[in-house]
């Protein structure tokens, strides 16, 4: 069985064996997602520390979720506009069914954006919960440092596996469904992942700086507390908001995987 993946300026023939490689890549993507799920269970199974620690972590989680949901509502407007533009703009090269290719490009733009949003949201949700568990593990008198490092690395591994798994699975799905028109549809998939990741990263960076400046003003100007002393409050909100922007900043890697 032979399938042709046409690219602008030439064609790349995908024979039966090459199609097998695509299927193997999809299986690898599913395995990566399975590893991510296993790491999530391992992280969440660890201790959560004292009641006071859980109360503080709950406040951080609530603020992080509110920020991310508000950002997603704003980004939804840009996603709708981009979907319309991708459908209106012409496709590259000669296609037997240009309308279906445009629909696929727009649809997989949404898929890429959803994958990117899921990675950022899942990364933030797990990071705000893992922070509590890392602190709780580090309090142990023996082996606390090693346990805390293990939880932290597993948390980062979840986002890494999700990025590779979803990016690779989406690309394989496009190739299997659209064959010769896959390069055009992949443009939409990669653009969707990159666009949402860029907005999350830039918007989160602005929000982080605003929180940093606000915390400094409260501590130094209103309360008269030098920033270098142990009594200064800014490290807490600054660290919390840094988590809010760092976690959603991971999805840009997803867009690079789809290229």
TrEMBL record:
Stored InterPro entries: PPase-energised_H-pump (IPR004131)
Keywords tagged on the record: Ion transport, Magnesium, Membrane, Translocase, Transmembrane, Transmembrane helix, Transport
Localisation per UniProt entry: Endomembrane system
Entry GO MF terms: diphosphate hydrolysis-driven proton transmembrane transporter activity; inorganic diphosphate phosphatase activity
Keyword Protein biosynthesis (UniProt): no
Regions that span the bilayer: 20-44, 75-92, 107-130, 151-178, 184-202
Topology within the bilayer: Multi-pass membrane protein
Highest taxon of source: Bacteria
CC per GO annotation: endomembrane system; membrane
Pfam families in the cross-refs: H_PPase (PF03030)
Protein name as catalogued: Sodium-translocating pyrophosphatase
């Amino acid at each position: 069985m032979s399938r042709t993946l046409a690219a602008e300026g030439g064609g790349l023939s995908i024979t039966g064996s090459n199609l097998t490689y695509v299927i193997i890549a999809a299986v690898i993507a599913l395995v990566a997602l399975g590893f991510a799920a296993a790491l999530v269970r391992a992280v969440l199974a660890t201790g959560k520390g004292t009641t006071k620690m859980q109360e503080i972590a709950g406040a951080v989680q609530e603020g992080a979720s509110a920020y991310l949901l508000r950002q997603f509502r704003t980004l939804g407007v840009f996603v709708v506009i981009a979907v319309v533009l991708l459908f209106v703009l012409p496709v590259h090269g000669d296609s037997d069914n240009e309308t279906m290719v445009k629909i696929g490009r727009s649809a997989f733009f949404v898929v890429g954006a959803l994958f990117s949003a899921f990675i950022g949201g899942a990364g933030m949700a797990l990071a705000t919960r893992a922070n509590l568990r890392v602190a709780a593990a580090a309090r142990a008198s023996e082996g606390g440092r090693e346990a805390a490092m293990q939880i932290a690395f597993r948390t980062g591994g979840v986002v890494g596996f999700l990025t590779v798994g979803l990016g690779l699975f989406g690309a394989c799905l496009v190739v299997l469904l659209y064959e010769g028109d896959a390069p055009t549809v992949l443009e939409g998939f990669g653009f969707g992942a990159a666009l949402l990741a860029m907005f999350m990263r830039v918007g989160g960076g602005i929000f982080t700086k605003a929180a940093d400046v606000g915390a400094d003003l409260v501590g130094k100007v209103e309360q008269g507390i030098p920033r270098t002393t142990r009594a200064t409050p800014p490290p807490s909100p600054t660290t919390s908001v840094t988590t809010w922007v760092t976690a959603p900043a991971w999805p840009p890697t997803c867009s690079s995987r789809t290229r």
